[in-house]
Write a structure and sequence with these properties.
alpha/beta; 5-stranded parallel sheet
């Protein structure tokens, strides 16, 4: 199952980008044997200042046809890492070819796109910077692959 991270904005070089790249590399390596990945990162940017609706349109175009859509949203479901791993494995086992994790911009995700989502995930009740959410998602994808493979990374 291919994983697509579709996000508003550009993640520039720096510590967040380094962490993000490292965790996605680990995910790709660990997930390959589990039929998870590769992970693809698609960034969109509304240069015309159209707000959430314009960002939503750009994100919809970035999502592959037929992909399961999972928004990263403060109103989404809070899951433990093992539960997230199980969910990822279930989507794969159900024959999903693609899953798209959608990260909105500073104002969040367009309500129309949010309504189209198959699932919504939250990293807690706190609001996180959308650039940091990318790193957290990449780490959780790697942790999920590690859990599903029986690897030592997750020690809970």
């Amino acid at each position: 199952m291919r994983v697509h991270i579709c996000a508003v904005g550009r993640l520039r070089k720096g510590p967040e980008r380094d962490l993000y790249d490292d965790y996605l590399t680990r995910f790709d390596r660990t997930g390959r044997a589990l039929a998870l990945g590769p992970a693809q990162f698609i960034e969109v940017e509304d240069k015309k200042g159209g707000g959430m609706a314009a960002e939503g349109a750009l994100l919809r175009r970035a999502i592959p046809d037929g992909a399961l859509i999972c928004t990263m949203d403060e109103r989404g479901k809070v899951m433990s890492s093992p539960d997230f791993a199980t969910q990822l494995g279930n989507w794969r086992d159900q024959g999903r070819q693609d899953v798209a994790f959608v990260i909105g911009g500073a104002d969040g995700i367009d309500p129309e796109l949010r309504a189209q989502a198959d699932a919504s995930l939250s990293f807690g009740k706190m609001v996180w910077p959308h650039m940091l959410v990318r790193v957290m998602l990449a780490e959780q994808l790697y942790r999920a692959a590690s859990i599903l493979s029986g690897g030592p990374y997750h020690r809970a």
